[in-house]
Amino acid sequence: MKKKLLIIPPLLFLLILLTFFYLLIIERNPSEIPSNLLDKSVPNFETESLLKKERFISSKEFGKEIMLVNFFATWCLPCRDEHIYIKRFSDEKGIRVIGINYKDNPKKATQWLKDMGNPYSNVPIDKYGKIAIDWGVYGIPETFIISSEGIIKYRHVGSVTKKIYKKINLLIKEIE
Amino acid sequence: MIKKTFIIFLSICLIQFFSNNSYAVEPNEILENQKQEFRARNISKNIRCMICQNQSIDESSAPLAKDLRILIRNKIKDGKKDEEIYKFLTDRYGDFILLKPSFKLNTLALWLLPFVFVLIGIFIVFFHNKKSKKI
Asked: Which residues are bridge partners to A157 per DSSP?
C-alpha cells in the first residue's frame, strides 16, 4: 500500500512539468489580456470625424454589416507596419473599416492617410483617449471584429501581421 | 569599521522602511479636496496599469495610467461612489485590472487552495508523528 502511494509525488511532478511544457510550446502571448467586451455591444460614442464634416455617431455606423474597428495613430510605428493589411481588408475583401484616430494631430493624420492610402470608411477622432478606454484598449494598434448585429466578436492587440490577417479573414467567414 | 558598516546598513534599512514609494501622480492631477484626493489615491493603488501590468496606476507613468488617474478623479468629482468607479473599470478591462482579485466563483480556487494545502500539510505532519511515536 505504502509503495503504491509513493508513485503519486513523481506522477504529480510529471503532470506539472508536462503542463508547463505545453504552455511553453503553444503559441500564446502571456501578456495579452482577453477583452472584457467580447460578445457585448459596441460602446456608444459620438465624436468629430477626421474626413467628414458631419459628426461620427456610433449607433448610425454599426449594426448593418460585419466591420472592423482599428485604433491607430501616426506616432505609432506598429500602426505603420499593419497598414498594408488594413488596406487589404478594405481593398481586396471589401470590408468596411472604421479607423479610430487615437490621441493624434489631425493634420498629421490626414497627411498620413494621403501618403499611405486610406483604408477607412470613416475616421472618428479620439482626441483624449476616452473612446479607447470605453473599448478597453490598452495598447494601440488594436483591431476589433464587429458583427452585423453590432456585437464585438474578436479583439487583436498589436500589429496585424500576415498570420493575424488570415485569422481575421477566417473569423469573418465564420461569423458570416 | 564593523560599527560604521552596521550604522550605514541600518540607516539604509530605515530610509527604505520609512520612505514612501515613488508615485507617478503629477501635481496638476491632484484634487483640491483632500478627502476626494485620498479616495482617488486609494482606488488608484488597487488598479493595475494595463501596460506595465505589475504596477498600479498610482505608480506608473504610462500615458494610459495617467488617463485612468484623471478619469477616476473626474468620476469622484462627479459624485460617483468607489464601487461605481471599480465597476466602470472592470466592465471595460475585466477583473484583471484589479490588483487584488475579487472573491468570486471563478477565483474560489485561487483564494481557498492555500488553506486546503495547509490543512493537508497539518494532516500529513500529524499522521506522520502518530506513526513515529508507535515505533
From this structure: A142
Q: Which three cell numbers stand for residue B10?
A: 541600518
Separate counts of helices (H) and strands (E) for chain B:
5, 0
Q: Which domains does chain A have, with CATH numbers?
A: 37-175 (3.40.30.10)
Asked if B92's CB is within 8 angstroms of A37's CB, the reply is: yes
Write down the pLDDT at residue B22.
59
CATH-assigned architecture of domain B24-122: Orthogonal Bundle (1.10)
ipTM above 0.85, yes or no: no
Question: How do residues A62-84 score in pLDDT, each as one tens digit?
Answer: 999 999 999 999 999 999 999 99
For B20-48, give one letter per residue: b (16+ CB within 10 A) or e.
eeeebbeeeeebeeeeebebbbebbebbb
Mutate: best of B50, B97, B120, partner A, most A CBs <10 A: B50
Contact B92 A138 (CB under 8 A): no
pLDDT in tens, B105-114: 888 888 899 9
φ and ψ at residue A132, rounded to 5 degrees = -60, -40
- In this predicted model, what pLDDT tens digit does every residue of A93-126 receive, in sequence order? 999 999 999 999 999 999 999 999 999 999 999 9
Q: How far is A170 from chain B (nearest CA, A)?
A: 26
Question: Which of these, B56, B61, B51, lies nearest to B100 by C-alpha position?
Answer: B56
Residue B109: what residue type?
A
CB pairs under 8 A between A and B: 36
Counting Cα atoms < 13 Å in the Cβ hemisphere of A157 gives 16
Predicted TM-score (pTM) of this structure:
0.81
Q: Which of B53, B71, B90 sits opposite A133 (nearest CB)?
A: B71
CA distance B51 to chain A (A): 7
